[in-house]
Design brief:
Number of strands: 0
Number of helices: 22
Largest sheet: none
Structural class: mainly alpha
Order of helices and strands: HHHHHHHHHHHHHHHHHHHHHH
CATH architecture of one domain: Up-down Bundle
Shape: globular
CATH superfamily of one domain: Sodium/glucose cotransporter
């Protein structure tokens, strides 16, 4: 299905790639410490934070995997942004981000380590490392699918080209380079996707033509154009799971417990920038279903036999894009792919350095990690993690739609993490061992339920219910164990629970 690109397309792609490398590498001159490498020196403005959060989040998972799921399942895919993003970003901005930012932490496990104990910190850090390393591999394989369809490039070559380009500017420029390249990539991505949407609607004859063409296909269900589906057996996205699990637990747990997303807010220059950045991300996220998922549905109308479904958008680019514009849209998609990869790469290394190496080094030596040592380790680990992810990426060629794989991975930590975060911030009586027990029991439950989910839950998307049950069980375990163990001393809770923050703010006023 691939088509050769014209010379102008290759020129546009080359200019884009050189621009990304220049912008990313430019910020290496401002990296003088580990804080500069991992959090951009805590100098990020709100607009850069918001744009970076969006493009890091939607990146490859939505543009390729999410659009592929929309090709197969229809309009209900939009719930992952409208129900599963905007409300959660509002909660994150006003309830969670202020606490993270005021503590001055590098990572979310570090925050929970201060509130509870070291075991809680290392347990969450381990699960997040596993999640982000596997996600990196999925993202690199997604780049291979995209470049195979558009450029007819061998998958392994595509994987290593993506890894090389991202590795150069992430290793040299750190978080500042990641964020500023994300800003440029978001603009290119929105322009490219808007062009694809307009041309797609022109081809099918508008919304009415889209509905007519897709509805005429023999395998189209009556729910394809419905936003909320009834809760029936084997329903992909039942409304109960979408509203209660995705809308309340999974989305909130994702945005407040995912290092790759929250790391931008942790690098804000002020608390106001941190909150405003998250709200800005929410505004951009409202446009994603129209720009990303609807083109996936349009691909179903134009090419109803695409296999795998994740190739829907690359196929649409080949069919609709004229010379010149095809190069721009290719650059837009590669921008999204690289944004996801660089975000998870930087956050993965941040967690390893901040939650494993730094505590061990300080305990053994009795002094902080020197800036030079932190920078050398961070850059070395960035290269090592990228090498591991690129090597593992071909394993995911066996999956038809990777969106469910990613959601299942997310369900491993969303429920338990959200439970102990809520109790840790709003309930002073939550103790160190209560939070630790709630997290560990929740993790064990998520692994078990994901293994037997299809036999227990009346839905093909069992991860929706895994998140809810793990959240409720973690809440209950944390409460019970906390009531059975001694209270934490008041000085430990200063600046970490709601009442102490409010009291501190009132005193300062």
């Amino acid at each position: 299905m691939s088509q050769s690109l014209a010379s102008i397309d290759y020129i546009i792609i080359a200019v884009y790639m050189l621009g990304v490398l220049f912008v990313g590498s430019y910020f290496s001159r401002y990296v003088h410490s580990a804080g500069d490498l991992f959090l951009g020196g805590r100098s990020l403005p709100f607009w850069a934070i918001g744009m970076s959060m969006v493009v890091s989040d939607i990146g490859a998972t939505d543009l390729i995997n999410g659009a592929g799921a929309a090709y197969d399942r229809g309009l209900a895919q939009a719930n992952f942004d409208w129900i599963g993003s905007v409300p959660a970003l509002l909660l994150a901005a006003f309830l969670f981000v202020p606490y993270y930012w005021r503590t001055g932490v590098y990572t979310l496990p570090e925050f929970l380590g201060r509130r509870y104990n070291g075991l809680t910190r290392w347990s969450l850090a381990s699960v997040l490392l596993l999640f982000m390393a596997v996600t990196l591999s999925i993202l690199l394989w997604t780049s291979a699918v995209f470049m195979k369809e558009v450029l007819d490039m061998p998958p392994l070559v595509a994987i290593w080209i993506t890894a090389l380009v991202v590795g150069i500017y992430t290793v040299s420029g750190g978080m500042a380079a990641v964020v500023m390249t994300d800003v440029m990539q978001l603009i290119i991505m929105f322009v490219g996707m808007a062009a694809l949407l307009v041309l797609g609607f022109w081809e099918v004859g508008g919304i009415s033509g889209l509905v007519t063409d897709v509805s005429a296909q023999p395998d189209t269900t009556a729910d394809y154009f419905r936003l909320l589906h009834p809760h029936n057996e084997h329903t992909e996205y039942p409304w109960t799971g979408m509203v209660f699990s995705l809308g309340i637990v999974m989305s909130t747990g994702y945005y407040v417990g995912n290092q790759a997303v929250m790391q931008r807010a942790l690098g804000a220059r002020t608390e106001w920038d941190a909150k405003a950045g998250v709200l800005t991300a929410g505004l951009f996220k409202m446009a994603i279903p129209l720009l990303v998922f609807v083109p996936g549905m349009i691909a179903r109308a134009i090419v109803p036999d695409i296999e795998p479904h994740d190739a829907a958008i690359p196929a649409l680019i080949n069919l609709l894009m004229p010379t010149g514009l095809k190069g721009l849209v290719f650059a837009a998609f590669f921008a999204a792919l690289m944004s996801s990869v660089d975000s998870y790469l930087n956050s993965c290394v941040t967690i390893f350095t901040g939650d494993f190496f730094r505590p061990i080094y300080e305990k053994v030596t009795g002094r902080p990690v020197p800036d030079r040592t932190g920078m050398i380790l961070g850059r070395s680990m960035t290269a090592a993690v990228l090498l591991f992810a690129a090597t593992l990426a071909p394993v995911f060629s066996r999956f038809e739609t990777l969106y469910d794989v990613l959601q299942t991975l997310l369900s491993l930590f969303q429920g338990p993490t959200l439970a102990i975060l809520l109790l840790g911030i709003f309930w002073r009586r939550a103790t160190a061992w209560g939070g630790c027990a709630g997290l560990l029991v929740g993790f064990c439950l998520t692994f078990g339920l994901n293994a037997i989910g299809d036999a227990v839950f009346m839905s093909d998307s069992s991860y929706l219910y895994v998140a809810v049950w793990s959240f409720l069980v973690s809440l209950a375990v944390t409460v019970v164990v906390s009531l059975m163990t001694p209270s934490d001393p008041p000085e430990k809770l200063t600046g970490l629970v709601y009442r102490s923050v409010i009291t501190k703010d009132a005193a300062e006023d």
